[in-house]
Amino acid sequence: MIFGRRKRRIERILIVEDEPLVAFDNEHVLGDAGYRVVATVDTVADAVAALEDGADLVLADVSLSDGGNGIDVAQAAKARGTPLLFVTGACPVDAQALAVGCLAKPYSQRDLLAAIEAVDARLGGERVRRAPPGLTLFEA
């Protein structure tokens, strides 16, 4: 099919977010867009446990409800070979070594979906044609 959509590399997403309304909104937007949310969690321990279920991408805030942070989640994801996109108000200094990029809060639903598509393209070695506002992608 010439004009068909390409197969996604990212299908299963783990959401690590301590703001309930943001987590709920992300979960529903991603589900409506055809992604499978493997879990929505708000602590480092729950995120590390959820990584065992397998995810193609982790969306992680930096500040989490257990006093831990998204950097701990990013280190665990990196050890498993699972890409992580920080979704946060302030991208951590050492994010480049741990994540594929950062999406700045606040972001729209459209920007979140476009950011995931951009990460999907980057992971496949494709050129990212148009990154949404607030998205910073890091070199592999």
Automatic annotation (TrEMBL):
PROSITE patterns, per the entry: RESPONSE_REGULATORY
Residues with 4-aspartylphosphate modification: 61
The protein, known as: Response regulator receiver domain-containing protein
Domain of life the protein comes from: Bacteria
Domain Response regulatory positions: 12-120
Annotated keywords: DNA-binding, Phosphoprotein, Two-component regulatory system
SUPFAM superfamilies per record: CheY-like (SSF52172)
Protein's organism: Sphingomonas jatrophae
Single GO MF descriptor: transcription cis-regulatory region binding
